[in-house]
Amino acid sequence: MAMFVSTRLLFFSIIIPLLISITLYQLDSFDPAPLPADSLVSSPTSIPPLLNDKFLTGAEFIGVGLLNNPEDIAYHNDSGLIYTGCVDGWVKRVSVHDSANDSVVEDWVNTGGRPLGIAFGIHGEVIVADANKGLLNISGDGKKTELLTDEAEGVRLKLTDAVTVADNGVLYFTDASYKYDIHQFIFDFLEGKPHGRLISFDPTTRHTRVLLSDLYFANGISISPDQTHLVFCETVRRRCSKYYISEERVEVLIQGFPGFPDNIRYDGDGHYWIALISEVTTPWKLSMKYPFLRKLISIAAKFGVELLFMKNAGVLQVDLDGNPIALYHDHPFSHITSGVKIGNHLYCGSLLHSYITRLDLLKYPAQKKL
Asked: Are 198 and 216 in contact (CB under 8 A)?
């Protein structure tokens, strides 16, 4: 009798779930591809000499409960206001003060979509990369919102991500994936195929042009201070590259990040600040290396089970040549999507938190590793 019970237990607890799993795996059409070899390794040259690995120790939190996943942060120097896009569709404005407690959050414009990247146009307008809507132009007074483009060369924008504005008014932006929308972005990561694009929009001619395609989740973008090239991040491939505008050529700036790069911001003082949404954890390393694991993870994700996790997010400071200078991070930190230096403070946006995180760089500087 005991043997019969144990056999039945084995059958129902192991054999049947195993058969179901095998059947689901075989029937699922999701087909992950091997990733480029350079995306599977971390480069020791991407580790800076200066570190602050206790970011949260000195962190302050702005707009707690009033900012719902503020993904990107753009600072308007003349007004002293931060503009940030939230998951509820609001582009919000946040006043910047010496004391974080004095900051005021204002509901400015609701796009009706999911505003991500934000930049300022040359005529006082606010340009928004809205993941759902496309590329938007909001008048400086917030009274008019105009759709600039929602397709490029016959292909719809599926996940409009980040935007930057050149001095001549031309807009450059990323479409992270033409296949998956923002609610499905994890499947773009897992599929391991290049669906991202780098795109330009000329407000004078109203022409939208694809500059680069076949990018691995095209994400943050910034224009160089001399206006000769763009710097853009590929999150899945863990690298940032230069795109020379006149020459139409690409050159890798930095690769083999210790984490996954998201937005990139120039600080006006010779540095880029690159947000890292997470370190490359062991589960991430294994899944990136083995496509069959990514398929299993995708099947679990379809049933609402999250097998991958993010931790140890931060912001990496590099010079204009891509040489790492300092890294501000913390192990409990995750989903940090933007980092902007305003005065002596580093302000960070997030896809997870309901506030902007701020760190005083003078009080809590990155220091040499022992």
From this structure: no
User: What kind and span of H or E run contains 283?
Assistant: helix 282-289
Q: What is the pLDDT of residues 282-306, one digit of tens each?
A: 999 999 999 999 999 999 999 999 8
Q: Which is more confident, 159 or 370?
A: 159
Element spanning 178, H or E: none
Query: Helix 291-302 vs helix 16-27: angle between axes, to the nearest 10 degrees?
Result: 100
Asked if residues 269 and 310 have their Cβ atoms less than 8 Å apart, the reply is no
Query: Exposure pattern of 174-211 as b/e (b: 16+ CB <10 Å)?
Result: bbbbbebbbeebebbbbbbbbbbbbbbbebeeeebeeb
Q: Would you say 313 and 334 are in contact if contact means Cβ atoms under 8 Å apart?
A: yes
The per-type count for the chain, helices as H runs and strands as E runs, is 5, 28
Nearest to 256 by CA among 234, 272, 287, 271: 234
Query: pLDDT above 70 covers what percent of the chain?
Result: 92
Angstrom distance (rounded) from CA 316 to CA 324: 7
**DSSP letters spanning 295-322:** HHHHHHHHTT---------EEEEEETT-
Which tokens is 360 given?
């005083």
Look-up of token digits 């790069």? 261
Span 31-66, pLDDT tens digits: 999 999 999 988 888 889 999 999 999 999 999 999
CA dihedral 281, 186, 192, 313 (to 10 degrees): -30
- What do you get for the CA distance between the two ends of the chain, in Å? 64
Q: Which of 184, 274, 286 is nearest to 234 (CA)?
A: 274
Closest residue by Cα to residue 30 from 195, 180, 187: 187
